Amino acid sequence: MENSEGVKIESTVVTEEPLISALDIALFVVIITVAYFWYFKRDKQSSSSEKKPYTIQPSSLSSIEQTSNSSFIKKLKSTGRSLVVFYGSQTGTAEEFAGRIAKEGARYKMKGMVADPEECDMADLVEMREIQKSLAIFCIATYGEGDPTDNAMDFYEWLQNGDADLEGLNYAVFGLGNKTYEHYNEIAIYIDQRLEELGATRVHEIGLGDDDANIEDDFVSWKEKLWESVCSHYGIEETGEESNIRQYKLVDCSEVLPERIFSGEISRLKSYENQRFPFDVKNPYLSKIAVNRELHKSGDRSCMHIEFDIDGSKMRYDTGDHVAVYPKNSSELVDKIGELLNADLDAVFSLLNTDEESSKKHPFPCPYTYRTALTYYLDITSNPRTHIMKELIEYASDPKDQEKLKLMASSTPEGKKEFHEWILRDNRNIVHILEDLPSVKPDLDHLCELLPRLQCRYYSISSSPKVYPKSIHITAVLVNYTTSTNRVNKGVATNLLAQLIPTNDELPQPTIPIYIRRSQVRLPPKSQTPIIMIGPGTGLAPFRGFIQERDYARKEGREIGEMVLYFGCRKKDEDFIYENELHEYVANGTLTKLHLAFSRDQPEKKYVTHLLEQNADELWNIIGEKSGHLYVCGDARSMAKDVHSIIVKVVMEKGQMTNSQALNYVKKMEQQKRYSADVWS
C-alpha cells in the first residue's frame, strides 16, 4: 500500500525483424507456464480431495469461517433442515442467540442451522419457499451510529438496493441494541420492515433487546413467544424433547507437535512471531508499549496514559479513530477454574463441530491447551447467561445446587428474580458460580463450548497522526470494584495494561495485540471551522487528538477556527488529566476557551452540563451563527443525553424556534456530521 514499484524500460534498436519476434517467444513461454501450473494444481487438488483421513490440523479463523458453498439453501435441502438462523454480530452475542434458537428448533421438529450472512448468498432467500414449513430467523445487532455489523453489511445493502420477490419466505427478527444510544435497534427494525415490503411473511413480531437493561431477559421472553407463534403458524406442537445436545465433541490432541499448537493467536498460527500486513480484527499487530504513565495526581483511582509503538507496522490512523486491544484473562482466575474442576490445564485438545455441514468447524483456533483457551479465547469474567445455568444442572451432585440452577434457568418470575439478584446484582462470573455451588463440576471441554468468546476492547485514540505518526495514545481508567459478595472484580484489559510497564534497559519491552477501527467522528474538513468539544473524564481522549491536529495546522501557518473545550472531573488536584498540556494550548492560542467543572471541589456538585447552560450565547454563536461543529464524548447513559437536551433548549431559545423546529435543526446537524458523539454505556 505504501510501497511502489518502479519499472525500468529499456529501448532497443532492431535492425532486422525476424519471422518470430522475442515478444512472440515470451508470450508463448508465459502461456505454456500458466497451462502447466493450472493443470498440475488442478491435479493436485483433485488428488488431495480423494484422500481425507480424519486428523486434526491447526485451524485458523479464516478456515473456521470459510464455507465450501455459499448456498445455504443447498445445505438446508441436503440435510433435511427447515430452519436457518442468521446473525449480525460485532461482539458475539447475536451469534450466541442464533445458536440457541437453532438448537431449540429440534423441540419443534425443525432441524436448524446457524449462518453468517457474510458467507452466504442472501439472494437465495427467494428459494426458501421451496422448503416445506421453512423459517428464517435474523438475530441482528445495531452497531456504532445506527450501522449494521461488519458481517451483515452486504446483506443490509442487498436489502436496500434490491427488489427480490420474497413471497413465501417466513421470517422473524430479534434485534440487539442499547437504549442509551440514539439509533436503538435501527438495523433490526429496518430489516424487519424491509422483508415484509419485499413480500415475506412475518411469523412473529420483532423483538428488541436492550443491552443497557437485561438483554438476556428480553431475548428469553421473546423466544418463548416466538415458538408459540411458530406452533400456531405451522400447526405443530412442541415435542418436549430436551435440546441439551453438545455442539462440539472433544478430540484429544496430545500427540500434536508443540509447534502446531495455538498459543493465543487470533487467526493464523505463529502470527505474532511472523507478522504480516495488513493488520485487522483477525490479524492484529503485536505492538510494544512505549509509554505507560499515571495521569491522576492523587486519590485511590488510576488513569493511565499509554502509547503503543506502531513504527514499521504500516498502520495508519486518523484523528478520532479507535484502537482495539486484545486482552487476556488473569492467570489467577484461570488457575482457579483448573483447581475447582480438578483439571489438567496443560492438556492439548480440540473442539470439533458435531454438525458436519457447519462452516464453523471449531469455536476458536485449534488445537490448544485448556490454559490457552481460558486465557485468550474465553470470557470468564462476565455474567453467564441463563442457558449456561441450564447446561450446568446435570453436573450438580447436590440437590440444592441443582434446584438453584433450575430456578435461575427457568423463565418464571421467581426464576428471573433469582437470576437477576444472584448473578447480575451480585456480579457473579463463572468462577464465582463454581465457588458458591461447590458440587457443580462440569467437564472443562463442555465449559469451553458454553462460555462466550473473549472480546477485544475499544479505546478512543487520544493522539493525532500529524504529531505522532509512529505511535497511538490512549487514556484508560483502571477498572476495579468490590461486589456485594466482597469479591474484587477487575477489568480484563485495563488490569493487563497496568502491568505492561516499559523498561529502560535492554530487556524485551512488553507487547499487546492491537488493530485500528475506523470511526465516523472526524474534525471538519476546513481547519477554519469552529468547534465545541464536550468531554468530561476520559471523554477528553479524542479531543486531545483534535487539539494536537489543530495546533499542528496553526504551527504550519494555516488559519484555525475557534476551539472550545468543556472538561470536567472530580477534583482539580486529583484527576485533572493533561492539565499542563491544556493550559499550554490556551496560552498559545490553539484552544480558544477552556471551561472546567470540578464536581467535588465545592459543597454543591458542578458538572459540564451546568457550564453549558450558563454559556448558551457562546453555544449558539458557534453552532448556529457560524455553522460550527459540536462533539460529545463520554457516558451515553446520562451525560450525553443531558447535553443533547441542553443543545435542543439552546437552539429553541437563541434560534427562536419551536421545540419541533429545534429537534429538526439538531437532527440536521447530526445528518451533516456537525453533531457527533463518541459515547459508551
**Secondary structural class:** alpha/beta
Number of helices: 22
What is the rounded Rg?
29 Å
Number of separate structural domains: 4
Give the N-to-C terminal Cα separation: 36 Å
Instruction: Indicate the CATH architecture of the largest domain.
Output: 3-Layer(aba) Sandwich
Poorly predicted parts: 1-20, 38-69
Strand fraction band? 15-25%
Q: Considering DSSP H and I runs of 4 or more, what fraction of the residues is helical?
A: 25-40%
Strand tally, please? Answer: 23
Transmembrane segments: 20-39
Cofactor: FMN; FAD
Domain FAD-binding FR-type: 282-524
Subcellular location: Endoplasmic reticulum membrane
Please explain how this structure is put together.
This protein is an alpha/beta fold and 681 residues long. Helix content is 35%, strand content 18%. The protein has 22 helices and 23 strands. Strands 1, 2, 3, 4, 5, 6 and 7 form a seven-stranded mixed beta sheet that branches. Strand 16 (480-482) and strand 17 (488-490) form a beta hairpin. The longest helix is centred in the N-terminal third of the chain and has 29 residues, at 22-50.
Characteristics:
alpha/beta; Rossmann fold; NADPH-cytochrome p450 Reductase, Chain A, domain 3; 4 domains; 6-stranded antiparallel β-sheet; globular; disordered N terminus; EC 1.6.2.4
